[in-house]
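Changelog-adjacent note: as of this version, every example in the card shows the full chain rather than a window. The one below runs 483 residues end to end.
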Amino acid sequence: MIQYVSNKGGGKPVGFETAILDGFAADGGFYVPETLPKITKEQLNKWKGLSYVELAFEVLSLFIDRSIISELELKNILKTAYEPFEKEDIIPLHPLKSRKDTYIMELFYGPTISFKDVGLAFLVNLVNFFLERKKEHLTLVVATTGDTGPATAYFTAGKSNLDAWVLYPKGLITEEQERQMTTLQHANIHPVGVSNCPDGADDLDLVIAKLYANKPFKEKLKLSSVNSINWGRIMMQTVHYFYGYLQVVDTIGEQVNMSVPSGAFGNLCAGGLAREMGLPIKYFVVANNKNACLHRIFSEGRFSKEDIIETPSSAIDILVPSNFWRFLYFRIDKNTEKIKKWVDEFNSSGTVTFDKETFEKYSKGFKSYSATDKETLDIINELYTSENYLLDPHGAVAVVAADQLKETLGNEKLICFATAHPSKFPEIIKRALHTDVLPQAATHASIELAKELCEKVHLCDHAHLEKALLHAMETNWDLTKGK
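Full-length structure tokens:
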């Protein structure tokens, strides 16, 4: 049975259920499996042709012991999770006409039309499964740059064993993303719009860390998270890498390249671990916007926090790619002492420069690029004009990065990830297409409906956020759960 440990080395190994329900490890680190399962060509051959849900069952079964979740229980959780998706195949792949052997993986057909649905559909239902079995309640608290929040809120809404406090930097996400949270009227959903966040959602993460460190508060409200700190998100997101690979290759063992719009490194961490498990991916393209937090790591060997820059791809306007520490654990032979030293150094100074040996170990198989706003908008315009295909600004960053690096990637098939529906970014689409009128492809029925509904939201200034949250969350707990 796989045990889970902190990537910082503190605490004792825990089982799968504990790792999922706790979110953070006891020492504040990220849970990682003690060992990663290995995938053979024979297994990949057996999996070719499986549906997304069938494939998810096979991949997740490598991490989840039958004594924890039975075969039937896992199948039922998956069935419930993916029933609300628009497309029967869950994640379609769209071939581009203008680029040879290039596919767009459309990860936005869940109920909140972003790729966060893919991981959170499963994770929230998994958490709820454990809580129902234990007859317990958890309070989820998450920070969002625009997509995690709506997905968390949607899948948590109405579940009697869960409350969700969803924090977002007001003015730094689109109104469309905001309304996906604030128009939910369920009593267990609590959106919190936070003004004056100089570092965007990174400011919110720091406050959440303080809530976790407040042990009496954490234990009373039973805090947990379904952000990408939670191993369940990373584990689930490995599946779409296997799925995309199996959809496009002619022969198992053939290598492909994948370009992923990146901010906190959660999605790419999952991809990196899928490759560690044996998936034949030649290069990952780390597609950053101007904030370049990951581009600095993969091109200069420097993990540093700079001032935030607002870009068209706002969901990846992130300064601290926290899941990089989780991936690094596997690339440096699970050396927890080094991870803890680097994390402490970053927390105290705001920067870490890795030694040459470490840089070579973690950067192998990765290429990175920092896309400008102009490049992002131009590629949206180009693909819409040339082949009537509309990308969101995050998928656009992935295509820009792949285009810029194509000479160094080789001739393998390429999959670019599109992580949100363009209807979530109407003003960006208008700018890109030089129009005041949105095309039909930039609209979605759920977004239009939300414009007509009442909003329910807590508003707070960042300067008072910790105190305000302690008051609001504890008061709600006392009123709804009893003293």
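Structural remarks: Residues 313 and 428 are 9 Å apart (CA to CA).
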